[in-house]
């Protein structure tokens, strides 16, 4: 008699659990769909495209963040060997944020100064997070001295040592 009571009580419990999981899954899916529809921007209408100037687009046609219109000048990549060990190379891409209109001539002077500075740095000086922070601080200080405060921010885009 006890065995039949156990089977009868377990069956409805299992069915109720499966039903509860199914209902919760549907509610979670519907809630995710509603939140996604509320957050996501509407798709562009067919035939309409955003107008972006050709000089402000990259190779893929996407707008570039570093443009002279917004006060940012992206410097050419700097590739040089380190002071010690000289067989190690460093590649650095930097963008400068100007306070006001950017000065391309000043940006080129800063580019050459950073390249000359990187030739004096050893691998031990820039290893680890603390070394990278010291490098960032040193470059920011050099840029501040060269620009007399006209460059407000030095943005590291890539940093590779090999």
Structure in words:
It is a single chain. Helix content is about 50%, strand content about 15%. It contains four helices and four strands. Strands 1, 2, 3 and 4 form a four-stranded antiparallel β-sheet that branches. Strand 2 (about 80) and strand 3 form a beta hairpin. Helix 2 packs antiparallel against helix 4 (about 130-145). The radius of gyration is 29 Å and the shape is elongated. The mean pLDDT is about 80.
Uncertain runs are none
Shape: elongated
CA gyration radius, whole angstroms: 29 Å
Described by strand count, sense and barrel closure, the largest sheet is: 4 strands, antiparallel
- In terms of DSSP E residues, the strand content is 15-25%
Count of individual helical segments: 4
How is this fold's topology laid out?
Blueprint lengths: L1 H38 L32 E3 L3 E4 L7 E10 L5 H15 L4 H4 L1 H20 L3 E11 L1
Antiparallel strand pairs: 1-3, 2-3, 3-4
Summarize the structure.
The chain is an alpha+beta fold. The protein has four helices and four strands, in the order H-E-E-E-H-H-H-E. Strands 1, 2, 3 and 4 form a four-stranded antiparallel beta sheet that branches.
């Amino acid at each position: 008699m006890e065995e039949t009571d156990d089977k009868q009580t377990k069956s409805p419990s299992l069915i109720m659990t499966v039903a509860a999981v199914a209902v919760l899954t549907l509610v979670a899916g519907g809630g995710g769909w509603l939140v996604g529809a509320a957050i996501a921007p509407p798709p562009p209408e067919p035939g309409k495209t955003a107008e972006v100037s050709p000089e402000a687009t990259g190779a893929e046609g996407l707008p570039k963040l570093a443009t002279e219109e917004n006060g940012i000048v992206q410097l050419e990549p700097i590739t040089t060997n380190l002071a010690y060990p000289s067989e190690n190379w460093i590649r650095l891409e930097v963008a400068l944020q100007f306070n006001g209109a950017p000065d391309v001539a000043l940006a080129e002077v800063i580019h050459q100064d950073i390249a000359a500075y990187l030739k004096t740095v050893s691998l031990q000086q820039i290893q680890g997070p603390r070394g990278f922070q010291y490098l960032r601080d040193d470059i920011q200080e050099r840029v501040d001295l060269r620009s007399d405060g006209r460059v407000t921010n030095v943005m590291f885009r890539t940093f590779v040592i090999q």
